[in-house]
Amino acid sequence: MKKLKVTVDEKHRMPKTHTTSIYFMLLLFFKMASSRDSILAHQLKLSSSLTCRLIGGLTREQRTVCHGSPDTAAIAFEGLQMAVKECQHQFRWHRWNCSSLLTKSSNPHASGIMKRGFRETAFLYALTAAGVAHSIARACAQGRLLSCGCDPLGYRASHDRGRARANKWEWSGCSHNLAYGVEFSKKFLDIREQVDDLQSKINVHNNNAGRSILASHMEVRCKCHGLSGSCQLRTCWRAAPDFRVVASSIKRQYRKALIVAQEELNNDPSILRGRPRGRRRSRARPAPKTSLLFLEKSPSFCEVDPKMDSAGTSGRVCRIGRTSRTGSCDLLCCGRGHALIRKSSIKPCNCTFHWCCRVDCQKCQDDKWVAICK
């Protein structure tokens, strides 16, 4: 009986020993996982810090901000690149088409045209400021940044402000954090400008114009929940729109940009006044917050000029047709004329479907005549 009792005790001890070994294995696993996460975080911080040193065109103050928030600065650089690509789309039929901005650096502010006071410069300042705020606002909601998350106000707080909620079954989703995006955009871009410089004041105004246009296009998106697609429950959130919508709105402001009236600056330096182009005799008025301001007349951009980031228009594809049409050969080629070039390509044609399941196509030559500026 005594021997049997010892055996029973040993059987009871075995699960305890086995549990202890599992505990130490799990502890070792979590320790290895946490050390791996810390190594990855350290590598990410090193990579981001290296990016802050390698990106050209940053001021000393910007590098300080970049080293302080390297992950957010990396998203800001994504916003700058998005703005440059959208600039190329918006100006694809203009003499200056943003083509040289990507070849300079990942930072478009390193280009020569950003140091001038042209209308194109005003468009770029507004577009890049909106691009940085747009990218960071989305990244916060996507969980890509540790320093921010969803908009703390959310859809419900902003949507129901000042009125009673009509639908009590409306839930608030994860809204894009526009406030944080705008804040970092100001912190990272406006710090470039000098306090007492006229061009710097214009640049800050155009930055704020781009961010204001972005804020005015914020959307409310909703998703329905319920049986058979019914909308018994609805989740809504505020979201930044497609960036092309914002860029198109900034492009409209570019067309009606105001030239700064320098004679009015002595009255109140804190207020920038402007008048429409070609109306020198009209009275200068305080510039609205969404208007773009410029200081000097733009060059023709017909010839190559590295200082102005002008690649010229020679070799550009133009449109044959009305003279006043954007991208027309008469305007784009600057009076040099154009040449017609035939471009041939092989495309599938006369396709037939065979049951089942095969599609047979012939190869046909497709010829197109393209107008190229001389």
TrEMBL record:
User: What GO cellular-component annotations does this UniProt entry give?
Assistant: extracellular space
A Gene Ontology biological process annotation?
canonical Wnt signaling pathway
Output the Gene3D superfamilies linked to this UniProt entry. Answer: 3.30.2460.20
The name this protein goes by in its record: Protein Wnt
Chief localisation class: secreted
A molecular function (GO) term: frizzled binding
According to the UniProt entry, the coiled-coil residues are none
Where found?
Answer: Secreted, Extracellular space, Extracellular matrix
Q: What does the sequence similarity comment in the record state about its family?
A: Belongs to the Wnt family.
Kindly state which keywords UniProt assigns to this record, in alphabetical order.
Answer: Developmental protein, Disulfide bond, Extracellular matrix, Lipoprotein, Secreted, Wnt signaling pathway
- What is the organism field in this record? Vanessa tameamea (Kamehameha butterfly)
Per the entry, what this protein does is: Ligand for members of the frizzled family of seven transmembrane receptors.
**Is Nucleotide-binding tagged as a keyword?**
no
